[in-house]
Amino acid sequence: MKLRLDAGDITQLYVDAIVNAAKKSLLGGGGVDGAIHRAAGPELLEECKTLGGCETGEAKITKGYDLPAKYVIHTVGPIWSGKEGYGGDNNEAELLASCYINSLQLAEKKELRSIAFPCISTGAYGYPKQQAAMIAVNACKVFSNRAESLREIIFCCYDDESLAIYRQLLTD
Ligand code: AR6
Known about the structure:
Strand order of the largest sheet: 1-6-5-2-4-3
Distance between the termini: 17 Å
GO molecular function: deacetylase activity
Order of helices and strands: EEHHEEHEHEH
Bound molecules: ligand AR6
Organism: Kangiella koreensis (strain DSM 16069 / JCM 12317 / KCTC 12182 / SW-125)
Number of strands: 6
Number of domains: 1
Largest sheet: 6 strands, mixed
CATH topology: Leucine Aminopeptidase, subunit E, domain 1
Shape: globular
Radius of gyration: 15 Å
CATH architecture: 3-Layer(aba) Sandwich
Protein name: Appr-1-p processing domain protein
Helix content: 25-40%
């Protein structure tokens, strides 16, 4: 099992599944969610409409349609409510870890080999980037010890700050 970094747009990746940092309705939005829906085409929204939304920390899977990725795993990250350095007050850390674990579990259930994550919750939802990255890497490392089908987990960093943070964490 390999954990690696990629810089840039997650919609361009040829992997079995890309993860979407979605909202509870699963009906599209801005940021990476908007980019994924644009690149996948309107059929993605049609399938999302049949899913009945998604709770924070949970995950649901759809096909990838026009994306190079075969599947999209939609997960809903927590909205940050704390102060930087003080932790969130509403279970944010546990919920963010659940996003990663539940997405990985869905990928295993479908016997996928590769999955790429964006930096969930660190855009519109305001989660401090360093704290979110530590949770992401830790959850994926723990999961990798019991992975069966998965061979590769990619952290897709869209901005330079996230890229630097993940580079540091993955070389530690
Ligand atoms: N590829 C990879 N990462 C990207 C891309 C891309 N094409 N575009 C943005 N990012 P955000 P959230 C990064 O705001 O904080 C949506 O409206 C971005 O730099 O997309 O979980 C949903 O519908 C950041 O590091 O997601 C929800 O309402 C990361 O993706 C809400 O935003 C996450 O930023 C979810 O907020």
